[in-house]
Every structure is written in C-alpha cells, then in structure tokens.
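Fold this sequence, please.
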Amino acid sequence: MKRPKLSIVILAWNNKQDLQACIESILDTYQDYYQLIIVDNASTDNTPRYLLNLQQNWDKKQSKLTIITNTKNLGYAAGNNIALEYIEGEYTLWLNQDIVVQKRSIHNLVNFLDKNDKYAMIAPQLQYPDGTVQKNCRQLPTLGNILNSIFKLKWDDKFDYTKSQECEQPMASAIMIRSSVMQELSGFDTHPDYWLFFNDVDLSKNLQSRNYKTYYLSEAKMYHYHGASTKKLWNVKKRLYWQKGFNRYFIKWHYKSLAGKLLVYMFSSFIFVLLIFRDAINFIR
C-alpha cells in the first residue's frame, strides 16, 4: 500500500455533529490519497457509534482511516499526541473537530510546504460560519499584551488577514506541520497544566526556539465554529484551565526564578479574578 503524503489528525470529544461535518468537508474537498487519524477522547455521546459506522463503511482506496479510542479524556495535548506513533504522512494537518474545510484549502497548504522548505508550519485563514475572518494569528504573548487584551486594548490589530505572510503564533485549531518536525518536538507538551489552553502557544514558542518559521496562507480558507467544545465547560472551570496553562507557559519560557514564578502566579490570579468578575457582569446583563 502506498504511503500517504498527508496525515490529518482530528481530536474528537462529545460533538458528533461537528465531527461529522469536519470529516465530510475533507472528503468533499481533498481527493488525493491521505491518512485520516481520529482520536476519540472518551466521548460519552453518540460519537463512538458514528466512528464505528464510519470505519465499517470507509473506502480504503480513497484514503487510509485510523481510529484511536482513548479510555479517558486526556485533554488536548496528550489526546493529540496519541496520534504521533500512527502518522505516516510527510505533513500532518491537525484539526479541531469544529473545523469545516473549504475547497482547495488543504491542497494550497500542501503545495506551499512543497515549495517552501524554510517553513515548518503553516496556518490557513479561519472564518466564522458567516464568512467573517477570525483573528487566529498573534504575536507570542507577553504579560503586557495579555493585560492589554483583557482590557480590550490593542494586541496584534495590525495583522492583515487578507495577506499571506509569516506569523508567530497561529491557533492550533487548524495547522499543518512537517511530520518530522513534530516528531522532533515530541508533539505537544503534555504537562498537566497544558490540559486545555496554551498548547498552541507553547508549540509556536518551541518552534521559534529551534529557529523554525511559521507561515499564514490567506488563500487556504476554513470555517471554524470557535470554541464549540470549550463552551461546554463551566466558566470558572474554563478559567482555571486557562490560568494553569498561563502559569506553565510563562514559567517554562520566561520566568524560571523564584521571584519570577511569584510574579506569574500573582499576575494570573489577578487576571483570573478580573475575568470571573467580567463574566458575572455579563451574566447579570
């Protein structure tokens, strides 16, 4: 059996409707032979039944299907990393289950990496279902620009999403990366504090630390139903996951001293209280 040039990894969890739409969009828009890997993160809805039916009716000549079923929810990073040992493609497209692929988007990403060896990772243009462009590329965070973002001040407002260009940190909702590079990194950092948030930030920082470059390709377009999975989490719980990821990222990469760690913990606690207060105000309104 021939080796696929591209592997596509989708992490599934309790959202059969979005997962099905994502898979069908791939089938409708990408005709080259590829490998599709679906990691089910211990779904408790009808996702397992859908995946069983998908496997039983899969056209093996069109592409290769691998379904991995986790016995418990491992979170984003560890859940995705389960796929590493199964990847066969030269490139790997990592997709959230709430992504819908548009025509030619995957081809455009593959063709770009084929022609541009100096880039290790590439991200498409993400759009909301109404076609509005989603801000999915940012500079790597600092304490200052996170504070500006919380207070709705400027942070990366000048990024032109109509123009293909280098970028520092795309959201991992849809990214294509050279498989050899992902293996070199040992995938996403699976530290427990990265269970849900700051996985993509850490990945981009790790690439940058090794002098790898990332590109944003506006000609590759995908719809993103932003936050479809995280919306199911109670807000305080979601904020706690965010705070843990925040602390892990800044201590790992920037503030390793005792004084630095104390600064990070104090800052994140302040932001946590601020966000909970803002959530409460919005709820009352």
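The chain has two domains: 6-228, 235-284. The two ends are 59 Å apart (CA to CA).
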